[in-house]
Amino acid sequence: MADTVAVRTEEEGRGLEPAGFAFEDRLRPLEGLRAYGLIMAMWVRSTMAYRASFAMTLFGDLAVTAFDFIAILLMFSHVDALGGYSLPEIALLYGLSATAFGVCDLLLGSMDRVGGRIRDGTLDTLLVRPVPVLAQVAADRFALRRLGRITQGLVVIGYAVATLDIAWTPLKMLMLPMTVLSGAAIFGAVFIAGAAFQFVAQDASEVQNSFTYGGTTLLQYPPTVFAKDLVRGVTFVVPLAFASWLPALYVLGREYPVDLPQWVAFLPPLVAAGCCGLAGLAWRAGLRSYRSTGS
Amino acid sequence: MRLYAVVAAGGFRRYATYRTATVAGVFTNTVFGFIVAYTYIALWDERPQLGGYDTSQALTYVWLGQALLAAGARMGGGFESELVERIRTGDIAVDLYRPADLQLWWMAADLGRATFHLLGRGVAPMILGALAFDLALPGSFWTWPAFLLSVFLGIVVSFAVRYLVAMSAFWLLDGAGAMRMAMLAGLFFSGMLLPLNLFPGLLGEVARALPWSSLLQVPADVFLGKHAGWGLVEAYAFQAGWAVVLLGAGRLLQTGATRRVVVQGG
Fold this sequence. Notes:
Chain A: InterPro entries: ABC-2_transporter-like. The relative contact order of chain A is 0.13. Helix content of chain A is 71%, strand content 0%. Chain B has one domain. Chains A and B meet through helix 3, helix 10 and helix 11 of A and helix 2 and helix 9 of B.
């Protein structure tokens, strides 16, 4: 700390730009990550203060998503195929969607609290700290219990890979981690865009759930189940289809109900990058428009 | 009695204040309604008459599930997080001083909330669902009041369960875990993910006997006309029975917990 102060006075003495600004501009992303880590560690420690409750929430999160899959298993106790897809095929769709969403939910899961912070004005506190607001908001109330969802998703992927009757190629194997990572980034973009939207409509944070929780639920079922317009919507408008359907259908060797060339299956990383860029812009615009609470 | 009526009215108005939030909730319920409805269509396409429902009855079940979700506070969002917080901070001591019964007070507030959620977040998704899909609406007028009575009993059961959950905070201090478990049970065993009459064998029998089935499965079956005559009376008795048992258990815990607060010295 003493070093920084020394540097600052020296540079200011030479009539340069105040060191504070230069420092922030150069190291902003790194600073953000470091701050995210610190805030995260703090929340983990505070959660561990109530161990019985933590164990219950962890189990609860694991079970919430497990029950999702149990519901699908119960459906398959009555039928052999749903929308023309067998159980292992649906398990792959389910596992990829749940894991991608789980990773995103772990890292950004509290973004929907922004609306509350805007309403009661506590966002002001975040603005005066020398840490990117996005990092603070993302790490706010970091919940380790959300590992439950990821665990469950991975187990289901494991089940799918073990039971699917596919000629696995290295490319198809690589598609799985690629899908999960790109999917998490696409969901992340939706979370951040949703948070930006809350600057405009503070109480409407629940709309976000339609795209996040609704999106992951949708992707857990094969696209043949849904109306074509809905499938087009999640392909071209909110590109959730890239978070699991398109790459997963390539792996399964299935046709997508909307006519698209096959190379589209390899686009998820690009789509994810594009979505994150747009979401970042939206977040910036939202934050700029913030005018604290009135009197 | 008048006091509790005022508290209930307050609960109603409190939630009625947030109009944007209500619209957002209706939007989300409708989106989920669509998603689940398509999966049920695929399921009933494979096996018509599954669980004794035809496709339009199954779709009606989906939309009833969405319409009653907020009213039954099955995803949380009721009074319990507030009460847990008061227990954790010790504000509960002030509540216990008040010349009102703790359980009745919160029940009145929660019934007010539920009434608003039934109107504000239940009616619109149901209408939208009926416009988009072919639903099996009741043929007889009397089904509607019969359905509403069953919904009311379901909400009381839901309150009683969540009150028990909140009381656990006296021992655990942090209620997040218990609330999570209650939400979980509320989703799965109410029949929100899949109607309980599709659950096979023993699991089905247990699920249908648990209190959560009064939250969705029983009211939905009343709506679909599956309970008539004595069957209807039995359905009500089942719901009311659980309500009495769970409210009684809540009262017992409350008595035990209150002693504990005194021991702690406030």
